Amino acid sequence: MTNAEKIYDAVMRLPYVAFLSFFLIRELSGIRTLVAFHPYVGGDWSFVMALATRVSVVIFFSVMLSFFISRFRPISKYSNWNPKITALLGTLFTYLLLLTPRAPADAFWNSLSTLLVLVGCTTAILVMVDLGRSLSIMPEARKLVTSGLYRRIRHPLYLAEEIAIIGFYLQFRSWQTMPILVVHFYFQIRRMDWEESILAKAFPAYAEYKQRTYRLFPRLY
Length: 221
Prior knowledge:
- By secondary structure, the chain is mostly helical.
- It has a single domain, classed as Four Helix Bundle (Hemerythrin (Met), subunit A) (Up-down Bundle), CATH 1.20.120.
- Helix content is 65%, strand content 2%.
- Strands 1-2 form a two-stranded antiparallel ribbon.
- The radius of gyration is 18 Å and the shape is globular.
């Protein structure tokens, strides 16, 4: 890889790093405010669930940042902008939820939200450990990973993210924010299409791997 390509790859990381850092700082500030107004936990289960949810989001953002900053450089990528725009919209569109007002505290919804966010974020962290420095936002080929959670599912990170995002949505749970969720799902499906195409082009073994695995759900899809 030439020096120009190395600089380009580094520059392309900056917008997402800045974007993710903004929301990480925002969530940390939100936790500080939440605790400041409720310094004594006591038996308030709703508060415990709300706090656990916010902490899990911070952990998820932190792991994403660390792997994204240290990722491998791509060995193959698209030259046109359609796949890149699709990936950006699939990744970033859902963060619009965090800019809308949260719904009033509710023990049931907060508990369900926390469960989904924790399951999604924990699974995503495990998947990112499998990916390591192969983590990518754009549909690019860095390294073919077929072990761990990738052994039977081709996109376990997307599955984990969607579980967590549904949990995020339950913190807002309004009809006004539902279109954000729907548009996000659409771009994620398109993003998988682009990613599978570039991996098949870069790695001859991907065709056999694709035949013996499922996209998201074993025996279903």
